[in-house]
Amino acid sequence: MNPASPPQTIAIVGAGFSGTLVAAHLLSRAKAPLTIHLIERERSRFARGVAYSTTEDCHLLNVPAGNMSAYPDDREHFLRWAQARVAELLDCACVSEVTAAAYLPRRAYGDYIAEVLDEAERGAAPGVGLERRIDEVASLKVEEGGVGLRLASGTQLRADRVVLALGNFRPGDPSGADAAFYRSARYRGDPWGPDVLERLLPTESCLLVGSGLTMVDWAITLNQAGYRGAIHVVSRRGLWPQRHKPGAPAAFGIEPSGQVGAVRDGLHSIRAFIRNTGADWRSVIDALRPVTQTLWKSLGLPEQRRFLRHLRTFWDCHRHRLAPGIAARLAAMRDSGQLVRHVGRIRSFREVGGQVEVTIRPRGSDQSYVFNVDTVVNCSGSESDYRRLDSTLVKDLLGQRLIRPDPLALGLDVADNGALIDADGVASAFLFTLGPPQKGRLWETTAVPEIRGQAARLAAELLKSDHSECSEESSQSVME
Ligand SMILES: Cc1cc2nc3c(=O)[nH]c(=O)nc-3n(C[C@H](O)[C@H](O)[C@H](O)COP(=O)(O)OP(=O)(O)OC[C@H]3O[C@@H](n4cnc5c(N)ncnc54)[C@H](O)[C@@H]3O)c2cc1C
């Protein structure tokens, strides 16, 4: 197919929230015959992805139900879905209400996405169909007028356009040990992998590396499962996610200046606003949410680097907050002494006498200290540097120069219309992406409130007959 013809086959690699929502929008919008291949390598993640395939009821959404609709133009869609299942949801251990302000189980949200897809499939126009495939896409080949896909099973497919909805990858290994340690049964490198809980429960102590939301998932899961051992948590700055508190966004804004020092000036104006008005800091962060992408893009690379160096962890723990019930439970675990906080760098891991000896250098000190744990779980957050990913497909695409990392190595280089940019700087007419791989370009692009709009706009873009007709102005709005 020529990019000037309407597509007859679209392949979507990855059936997490991003890929599934693109498929649902394609099914709803396409009026001419179209086959959509939705390909997911892990059965349990189909239409759920990493975040919503958990089976733990106490892994809660960190966004209130009222803002978790899959559809940007129907904000109450998820809430209605949940309220039609109140009794079932109230049966879950960590749910006390099903309102717009409630933080509901991510497992239930996975059921919701799966139903969104089923519903779109049932309502598709004649000739528009979905092929669900459990398989890994191992390589792609851009051919005359389309793309050939080779799957790990040996199946070959051809598509006119391909969406790489690859999402979150397992964290990179922390430094401090030789390669053998990272293959040891005492080290769990993938916090979202199978059997992690079963392996942890018989142990008397564990170390969670990183203090973000994945650490919180693990601490709460262990607590819920009756784990009585010590849970050590280490992070460089010792910052933990903050708790949500109800409240409206403040009447606060920052003008995108693009000047040198914009990051420092922005921080000063946030602090001054809070000091002068007494506003809760959450309402100030929330006021910035709708303009964060615009502010990020206005910064330019040197200021973006400055932000990442000095403010990233502060931003993350204030922006990605905890459901109040989860925060209270975590605080109780800390008060009881079960959760032990370490602030500093890991110097080494060493397997000694059936345990792992961990050496930590505390922040601001030259004196290291040592303690032993039974198991180490890497909760340090999704690896975003594509050059370091252990993915056959990503290696293949980098090797063929069909993709390139963005300049900050937070994801991939992506054009305004979602097209992937190759190693020579040319936007593809065939390969597209959305969600987490756009972090370098947009910064805020990993949560449902951002991805749902991107999915709707990318579906419209994919169905266009000719990408070259997409004006600069219209393409600007496609992926934000
Ligand atoms: C633990 C966790 C909790 C979160 N909680 C929230 C929340 O409460 N609220 C919120 O708004 N956001 C939350 N997020 C943000 C989350 O990233 C997004 O909401 C969204 O789920 C991202 O979806 P995705 O489809 O882009 O990525 P993913 O969910 O990572 O899905 C990508 C899929 O692609 C598959 N895949 C990768 N490579 C291949 C291949 N070669 N072949 C076939 N399949 C492949 C993977 O198996 C995976 O299932 C959370 C994220 C995480 C990690």
From TrEMBL:
<dbReference type="InterPro" id="IPR038732">
    <property type="entry name" value="HpyO/CreE_NAD-binding"/>
</dbReference>
<dbReference type="InterPro" id="IPR036188">
    <property type="entry name" value="FAD/NAD-bd_sf"/>
</dbReference>
<dbReference type="InterPro" id="IPR052189">
    <property type="entry name" value="L-asp_N-monooxygenase_NS-form"/>
</dbReference>
<dbReference type="Pfam" id="PF13454">
    <property type="entry name" value="NAD_binding_9"/>
</dbReference>
<protein>
    <submittedName>
        <fullName>FAD/NAD(P)-binding protein</fullName>
    </submittedName>
</protein>
<feature type="domain" description="FAD-dependent urate hydroxylase HpyO/Asp monooxygenase CreE-like FAD/NAD(P)-binding">
    <location>
        <begin position="11"/>
        <end position="168"/>
    </location>
</feature>
